Amino acid sequence: MTKLNLKPTAGYLIIEPLEKEVKTASGIYLPGNAGEKPQKGKVIAVGGSMFVDGHETKSPVKLARP
Q1: pTM given for the model
Q2: N-terminal to C-terminal alpha carbon distance within the chain
Q3: Structure confidence by residue, pLDDT tens digits, 24-49
């Protein structure tokens, strides 16, 4: 992964999608155009808190650093 100097705005995330599976659990290899887009990813950055109706709302997710 390339380091990017992106900072999401309040209430948003930056997510890196995980690689698409090329082999099923039973051992069958899938061609490149088969299958679905990955629905899971790794959170890269979390936006700060935002104000809604005068109240501060923090992001419901946290970035876990290894």
Answers
A1: 0.56
A2: 16
A3: 788 887 776 666 777 888 888 888 77
Report the SS3 class of residue 45.
Answer: strand
Nearest to 49 by CA among 5, 16, 9: 9
As a whole number of angstroms, the longest Cα–Cα distance in the chain is 54
Which of 12, 22, 2 minimizes the C-alpha distance to 43?
12
Say what the pLDDT of residue 37 is.
Answer: 73
Handedness of CA 51, 57, 60, 61 (dihedral sign): positive
Rounded to the nearest 10°, the torsion over CA 39, 44, 47, 48 is: 130
Tokens 């700060």 — which residue? 48
